Amino acid sequence: MNKSFFLGAAVAVGAVMLIPGVAVALGRAGRPIVRAGMRTGAVAFDEFRKAGAEAYESMEDIIAEVREEMEAERAEGETEPEAAGTNAG
């Protein structure tokens, strides 16, 4: 075995021994970043939910208007034959 193998093995063992300490340090430092990201995501979710509710309400209004128009046309169509029949006689 050559010298570079032992050097690489020593570096690997040292890195493995440092991982818990590094993980804790990164966890402490990263927590505010994670919290900020979660907060941003929650705010975005609320805004998208509000926008979706408004779009849904608008769509319901349009559908109601179309149904009213269809009902008016249907009622108009039912009264026209009667009016035409009385004028012809």
TrEMBL record:
<dbReference type="InterPro" id="IPR033456">
    <property type="entry name" value="DUF5132"/>
</dbReference>
<protein>
    <submittedName>
        <fullName>DUF5132 domain-containing protein</fullName>
    </submittedName>
</protein>
<feature type="region of interest" description="Disordered">
    <location>
        <begin position="70"/>
        <end position="89"/>
    </location>
</feature>
<dbReference type="Pfam" id="PF17195">
    <property type="entry name" value="DUF5132"/>
</dbReference>
